[in-house]
Amino acid sequence: MSAEKMHDIIQPAQSNDGSIDVGKVDLENDGEVFKRGEGIEDFRTVGWIHTTVILLKLIFATGVLTIPSAMYTLGALPGAINVLGWQFLNTYCALVQGQFRHNHPGCHSIADMGNLVGGKIVKEITGILFLVAFVIVAASGMVGVSTALNALSNHSLCTNYFSIIAALMVGLAASARKFEKIAWITWAGFASVFIAVFIVVVSVTTLDRPAAAPQEGPYDFGYHVIAHPTFAAGITAASTIFCSGAGTSAFLPVMSEMKNPRDFKKAVRWCMGFVTAAYLSFSIVVYWYCGKWVASPSLGSAGPVVKKAAYGVGIIGLCVSGALYVHVSAKYIFVRVLRNSRHLQANTIVHWGVWLGTIAAITIVSFLIASGVPIFNYLLSLAGSVAFAPLALGLPGWLWIYDHSDYWKGTWWQKIQYMLHVVLILISVFLTVGGTYGVIVQILDAYKDGSIESAFSCADNSNSS
């Protein structure tokens, strides 16, 4: 990268008189979205270690709770291959997005990148997909919190009342304006989920039989090295595993608030390396000892006593996950609305009104989705197929091609790289179409067989697999 381009990355845009121009937007050549200077609020306050923990919390909580049941659908070997394959692609695509932002530092979100490579129509489509994805996963976070409250209280209230409590908890935690403030609670959130999952993983190894299986007489354990699911079930399980690490488009707003955005690559590698190792080891152990009797979310797999202990420890992490998803959704709207205004970094009534209003709106919509489709796996599969596939795979492939358009006429190795990124786009198209079909079929079947009661019912459906 040229010295001139590197200067653009770390310097704020300035007007002719040398003062900071908070309204200038140049995706190609401008400096960071959040400026630094006297009289404005500094948002660029997150170090790379805090960034790593935030990225971990964005990725880790939901995936580790759903992959064991997806492994039952696919079988242990295909499940493990899916974990390794999807996490490799998700890691690579996260690095592509980070490098693209280095090259074009005016991009705050994935929608800005879509605007740069495809114009306003692509920008709007990308922005909508981003909001859809993270509203859905925020809903899944609320399902996790309401499930925890149900487990801890012995279902003393209607599930929908617990969902309302969960929504209030998530919305309140999400309301901090800066990732720096959320970073401190993500430490506790990540630790709580990791410990909760570890409790379950250790506990299932001590049981003679899975907790949900018949405790006497013969029974079908349901462990398969290679399973033979229907297309709808298989693509839904694969989409669930993919979605467990596909929230990489949420990394970009965090990168915009880093003290030094050039440390982003280091944070991504630490995050995704840990996530991949944890997903693979935890899910294989839980599936090995539980078979088809694994719960979804998986914290319920070791019986009611361990379930209460795990949810008691993990509820903080589940709440923080939902809060992060609400926060990144609201931050996209917040920056989009105020980017051309001094209110973006000024403590004005407009600034706070827009911020708190977007937090409230995203929280309400997420609550409605959580109550309407309360099965954890299906929420994540829906997010993975409809939104994350184009955001986390297709668009990064396009971004790479945009910055390497000359490779098509380069050396044979450059041509191979170019074609591999075209294949990446085609994979995203297949996962979007096939995954959406599969999850819709699965949701309809769940309503037919009673796995899901009517929307907004009091039944606790969150443990269905």
Account of the 3D structure:
The protein is mainly α and 465 residues long. The chain has a single domain, classed as Amino acid/polyamine transporter I, CATH 1.20.1740.10. 68% of the residues lie in helices and 0% in strands. It has 14 helices and no strands. It has helices at residues 3-10, 48-74, 76-103, 110-118, 120-153, 159-174, 179-204, 231-243, 251-255, 264-290, 304-338, 349-372, 376-403, 412-449. Helix 2 crosses helix 11 (304-338), helix 5 (120-153) packs antiparallel against helix 11 (304-338) and helix 5 (120-153) runs antiparallel to helix 13 (376-403). It starts with a helix and ends in a 16-residue tail after the last helix. The model is unreliable at 1-25 and 461-465 (pLDDT under 50). InterPro entries: AA_transpt_TM. This is Amino acid transporter transmembrane domain-containing protein. Keywords: Membrane, Transmembrane, Transmembrane helix.
